[in-house]
Fold Acetyltransferase, putative.
Amino acid sequence: MVVSINANKTCVTFGICSVKTDKLIGYAGIASISSLNRSGEYFILIGNKAYWGDGIGTEVTKVITDYGFNTLGLHRIELTAYANNPAAIRAYENAGYTHEGLKKEAGFRNGVFIDKIMMAILAPDWQGI
């Protein structure tokens, strides 16, 4: 993976490469990092659908979460997922994230408002990878 940290240290981004092809297939990281609150927001995008459903999302989420807690010293990492994306929600659950709430009609895609699921994990609850 390749890492990029912005100048004010509020975001860290990693490239996701396929083990089989060594090609870049997406990116993931932690944004909105608050050193005061020791928190940040996880994000991921795997652009090529051929790589969906293979557990890559779960594994990347675990790696980035571990980095957030053990390298950045965060206490809390949160995320939102579209309610109509059960595969993403399952990947986050498999990585240890728990549901915290629902943001009604917080996203707009293809002319429709969609609910978002709020999820998070705290450092004391992190079991590692």
Observations:
- The domain at 3-125 is CATH 3.40.630.30 (Aminopeptidase).
- The CA atoms of residues 32 and 111 lie 28 Å apart.
